[in-house]
Amino acid sequence: MPMNSSYQDPSSTLIYVSDYGYITSGENRNISSVYIKPSLAKRNLNVRFFQHGARNCYALRSLLAGNKYFVRALFYYGNYDGLNKLPVFDLYMGANYWHEVNISAAGAVKWMDIIVVAPADYLHVCLVNKGMGTPFISGLDLRPLRTVIYPEVNASQSLVLISSNRFNLGPTDNRIIRFVYRCV
């Protein structure tokens, strides 16, 4: 997304902003036109990729220390580099390992979710190069949570939500109301 731009997602009504000001490394590139479909969310149309540096981090600022946050990292390769080489890299929340990002298909959306307590007024989301392809990201969502939900999440323990263990308990008209998460 161009610097200092924003848009509102029509289905979720969330407002997405450019990552300008949250990270100083990496480059933006559009995905291949072959992978653009009418149903594809706008945030998946381009990626930020990191050819240089072993560790590239977003700084999510202006948070309240001690509050809980839901963070979603979203990945849609879409053959943005024209190499059709699916990368594998690691995702960290600050210094703590979050999950391996293993892109299995160029046209598949992959996401990683975590619920954390902010130790300070910021969080760092880092992509770490493992030498198995260039790390990239399509979107990064941050939502504040009420402190009473997810009581197992505290200053020393986060909750990683595995995407394969979610169930839609919403209506039958394909709208997503909420997910129930099962910890493994």
Report on this model:
InterPro entries: Malectin-like_Carb-bd_dom. The chain has a four-stranded antiparallel beta sheet, with no helix packed on it. The chain has one domain: Jelly Rolls (Sandwich). Strand 1 and strand 2 form a beta hairpin. The protein is built from no helices and 15 strands. It has 184 residues and is mainly beta.
Give the percentage of residues in beta strands.
35-45%
* CATH topology-level name: Jelly Rolls
- Helix/strand-derived category reads mainly beta
CATH architecture verdict = Sandwich
CATH class: Mainly Beta
Number of strands: 15
Helix content: under 10%
Provide the domain count: 1
Question: Could you report the average pLDDT, rounded to the nearest whole number?
Answer: 89
Strand order of the largest sheet: 5-10-7-8
Cα-atom radius of gyration: 16 Å
Fourth-level CATH superfamily: Galactose-binding domain-like
Question: Ends: how far apart?
Answer: 35 Å
What does the largest sheet look like? 4 strands, antiparallel
Individual helix count: 0
The H/E string reads EEEEEEEEEEEEEEE
Anisotropy-based shape? globular
Uncertain segments: 177-184
